[in-house]
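All the exercises in this workshop are built on plain-text protein records. A record pairs a protein's sequence with a compact description of its fold. Backbone structure tokens are a discrete shorthand for how the chain folds in space. Once this layout is familiar, the rest of the handout is easier to follow. As an example, a complete record with its sequence and its structure tokens follows.
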Amino acid sequence: MSSDGVPNPPTAAWPPPQGPAVHDELVELSDAPLAGEVPGTVPGMADEPPPGEFEVIDGRGLYVRVTQPEPGPGPDAWYVHGLAGSSTNWIQLAGALAGTARGYLVDLPGHGRSDPPPRGRYSLVDDADLVAAAIRRRSCGPVHLVGNSLGGMVVVALAHRHPDLVASLTLISPAVPDLRMTADRGADPRLALLLLPGTTGVATRRLGALSPEDRARGMGALCFGDPDLITDAEYEAAAVELGWRFGLPWLHTATIGSLRALMTSYLTAGRWSFAAAARTVRVPTLVIWGTRDKLVDARLAAPTAALFADARLLVLRGVGHTSQMEEPATVARAVAALWRSTGGTGAPHPGITSAVATSSP
């Protein structure tokens, strides 16, 4: 808590929550098959991202990167990042899967190079509808949806509202509701104070006081199970990208606005709740979690997977909130196996191993 009575925002200005105790035993719950090998070469975290372009959809500016100009052998894949992230969070995973599916990497409104929403109204449902409109414009037929954290919530809303657009669903540490009043839960309860009126200005000023370098290292400490995996060169590359974004007047309000939209969604009940939306999803679904997730408790992994009609689960030992960046090869093998299982009659592809994945290699 700051001296002005407002919690520090969830970056380096806010000391990373310790999170729940590490539950490595949860890897035994994994039942997701893995493809026999990584489909393609995994790019480095600091490699040049795929090219992108800005387009106006329904009067809103959206920036989308594309991994290759031509379609892959199967449906296209659309990747949706988490809170305070951007399309560059998918460089490694989308690159490894580029030969399997043409990848579209989206910057959500107010993030990356996309415009903020009209009147600063951040909404998970509006984000889902905007991405759906982009899919209808760019892709033919149903697509594979991949979402991390906040993006996981967005793609579930999309699958619920636009089921004709979805061939499969992959959720990486989705920011699912967790209203348990326990001392060792992953989410920091101080975040709830950001719902109070009058806190946006102070929170935004505290975010603005951070340098790009401090914010990059703060996000690494918050999101990675082992921040030492990130090299100095990779932190420098992240800081360069953040430095460009720091020039945007809506950068910090987008973080706070999106966080508020996420937390407001937790209070939604009945047929509009996350659980109700998840139960309507009928496509094959892969849920991935890390045992060192500081932001969303790994003990929610199995209950989350159980909400979906056709789900498989992969829990990775020692991994944090962004397994697509921390363990991209294993995640790519799991996603490739899911995608192959959706073809034809749904029988597993010969390249899929019969053994379940119980831990990160």
In short: The beta strands are 33-35, 52-57, 60-66, 77-80, 103-107, 143-148, 166-172, 285-290, 311-316, 352-356. The longest helix spans residues 251-266. The domain at 25-188+251-356 is CATH 3.40.50.1820 (Rossmann fold). The mean pLDDT is 84.
